[in-house]
Amino acid sequence: MTDILDIEIETIEGRITTLRDLGGNTYLIVNVASACGFTRQYEGMQALYDAKQSDGLVVVGFPCNQFGGQEPGTHEEIATFCETKYGVTFPMMAKVEVNGDNRHPLFAELCKVPDHEGREAIKWNFNKFIVRGDGSVERFSHRTEPSELPL
Question: 26: domain CATH number?
Fold first, then answer.
């Protein structure tokens, strides 16, 4: 069994890495979209990253176009949007699928923790997963504001 921290992920710039390689001891993983009603949560995600990066928190955004086609852009367009609109400096990954047959392996592992309604599948953009350094996972709804997370 592969450690969740060692599953390969691709950065928005096209480089292969892992959560472990991103450093830190706690990871906030979020499936994001640029044209969603919850897109404003980028602001809270960046505020958390700014406040807690020195304590070992790494916020990681995974663009996903599976919910209402709300992330149709190219990697370059997504990166530019995040930087200019929300000042995002935390790591952004390549666009992924979080549900279905082509679900990224990281999300296959994360979704083994059911949501508050008992579902494994992700319901919408901006679901949040906290992964601790020991590999434990906590899952939070898209409605949970970043400031409400137990970090």
Answer: 3.40.30.10
